[in-house]
Amino acid sequence: MITGDAAYIKQLNRGLLLREISDQKKISRAALSKVTGLNKATISAQVAQLLEEELIYETEAEHYAVGRRPIMLSINEKAGYVLGADLDKGAILYHVSDLAGNTVLNEKKIIETEDYEAVLGILAADIEMYTSRFAEATYGLIRATIGIHGTVSNDEEILFVPKLGWRRKSIKSDLQTRVSIPLTFENNANLSAYAERVFSHQQSDHLMTVILSSGIGSGMIIHGELEKGHHGYAGEMGHMIIYPEGRPCKCGNSGCWERYASESSFFDHLAEELGESRLTAPDVQQLLEDGNSTAQKHMDSFIRNVSIGLNNVINLYNPETLVLNSDVLSWCPRAIERIKDNLVSNVSTCEEICLSRLGGNSCVLGACALSIQTFLNISHLTLSN
């Protein structure tokens, strides 16, 4: 039995009700009492408060067999909005969703600078622009969560962003003073893992997502919670060494996984062998569709190197669900089957290995979901998009 002062218990009950209303989409007061164990008086008082705050609204049930149709409660998804941002080299992807996780806008902004202060200026201007755009909602633009392609500490400071060359930046305090809504900063792979849990794999309490893009990052859900490690730096799987004394890496080591199994390494080494200065995604897709032998050889090598790293990851963490986020793998019809064929260990297995259906939006979807959970102050969130 949970005990505490009245204000604390009231806050716990509020969170419990908001979680159930959010998860169920539509639920009656009687059903709320049954699933939460709260008495009718508590339900009545809490619901009245939430209605007054315009966080929920009432509708009549559409179909009901006998007697009066019950009044159903739902989250007022249009009461406010949240902003997610994926800050990467050369671009920022912005995503706004309502309180039910529905997409309102998704916009990519190309940026031509890597200068820290210049990027902060762009972020500040854009956040204030979006804040103004959604100001008419009851709660306006509530907060923003920004994904960083690098190591972010538990107190939301940047240790290192390899692609931008940023080291030891107090990004939260530097940007928070320039905008009018609360900010959260998190590693992009952590946000992607959170998105997979909230939107796609809601029953999986042990989930790992591995993002194969310009580098390799991973996020972990363990016992239903995001696992970030002692300092917040967990998940840097791309810097696991798979070939001792192999290709040099920006991290200072040699033979790192991402030097062999990131999409950028795949593109670079394929272009080099073909004598091209660079290859675009459509170029590579066309080569694979045409059955180009060099492209096929590099795809074989790519899948083998992805599998080597995944074998280590599975043995270390024993995830129930392993989600791979990769455009290149999606171009190979049997990529997942081939990876599974390479994972023959009798020591540790994974119940599900799949490609992400969220793709390049996983970070911003996770960012918006985290902002929604923070605003509603609930312990668990389930959304559809």
CATH class of the largest domain: Alpha Beta
Radius of gyration: 23 Å
Count of DSSP E strands? Answer: 16
* Number of structurally distinct domains: 3
CATH level-3 fold name of the largest domain: Nucleotidyltransferase, domain 5
Indicate the low-confidence ranges by residue numbers. none
Largest sheet: 5 strands, mixed
Strands in their spatial order, largest beta sheet: 6-5-4-7-11
Number of helices: 13
- What is the overall silhouette? globular
Write the element-wise H/E pattern from the N-terminal end onward.
HEHHEEEEEHEEEEHEHEEEHHHHEHHEH
Question: What CATH architecture label of the largest domain applies?
Answer: 2-Layer Sandwich
Entry summary:
The protein is of the alpha/beta class. It contains 13 helices and 16 strands.
Protein described:
- Belongs to the ROK (NagC/XylR) family.
- With 385 residues, the chain is of the alpha/beta class.
- The chain folds into three domains: 6-75, Arc Repressor Mutant, subunit A; 81-193, 2-Layer Sandwich (Nucleotidyltransferase, domain 5); 201-361, 2-Layer Sandwich (Nucleotidyltransferase, domain 5), CATH 3.30.420.
- It contains 13 helices and 16 strands.
- The strands form four sheets. A five-stranded mixed sheet has the order 6-5-4-7-11, sandwiched between helices.
- The longest helix has 25 residues, at 293-317.
- The two termini are 36 Å apart.
